[in-house]
Amino acid sequence: MTSIISIKDLSKTYAGGFQALKHVTLDIRRGEIFALLGPNGAGKTTLISIVCGIVNATSGSVTVDGGDIARDYRRVRSMIGLVPQELTTDAFETVFNAVSFSRGLFGRAPNPAYVEKVLKALSLWDKKDNRIMTLSGGMKRRLLIAKALAHEPTILFLDEPTAGVDVELRKDMWQVVRDLRSTGVTIILTTHYIEEAEEMADRVGVIAKGELIVVEEKAELMRKLGKKQLVLHLNAPLQAVPAELAAHALELSPDGRELTFTYDTQAGRTGITALLGDMRTAGVGFADLNTIQSSLEDIFVDLVRSTK
To answer: Under CATH, which number does the domain 226-295 receive?
Structure first.
């Protein structure tokens, strides 16, 4: 798959000396959903702002569909839609006029039918004549997406798009994202709801302290870094892990009724057979067992913790 955004050795140091980005290199593939995860202050918004031409980089380069973001700004920027974190809107304007105005900012001819289509897709059509000040927080968030889509961009940045949005609205908005991807729109999102990235993204990047720690296919990332655990529910509680089982690095639950064994899913031998044999030898019986696979959130937390 070809790249539509190419970021090379990108760094940003602000006037006060804070280095927000440190030599970031990243390619975004055409038509994918890419999730950029990281704690607050990691550099996510700075990276997005540079690609969108809002902030100037200290060094490095960004090209979008072959055009340099600095030298070919007008063409490149017209390809990009941005949904920012902040709910900044003209409170006294109507919904329909606000979206139509955003379209005009990029030199697009008026197209009421397209604006109607966008508003209906975002369940805003019945609010088209309402002043923005009368909308709920969730509706204002939808309006930001509508404004970002007004000029028919081929790339859409979503910076914490579901912050403050209720569960029902969030599901609707993610359906819109799926529909956009199906039409060929490339989507880059940041989110604190890691389960959304786990469900939606094709690839995941993790950024911390201005550095890109890892970029990987979501499924491959979970395969490589995910842990699998075998939880054994014991017949009788233990006070401590028996010495005969010490080599297996087991965790005993506080009530002594469960033993947890963590193993590598990629290893040729998981060690489960040896564990069960040693348990028989030690006279430790179990009534039931189940396995637990690490989630993307577990992997994210472990990756970020490793940078501290």
So the answer is: 3.30.70
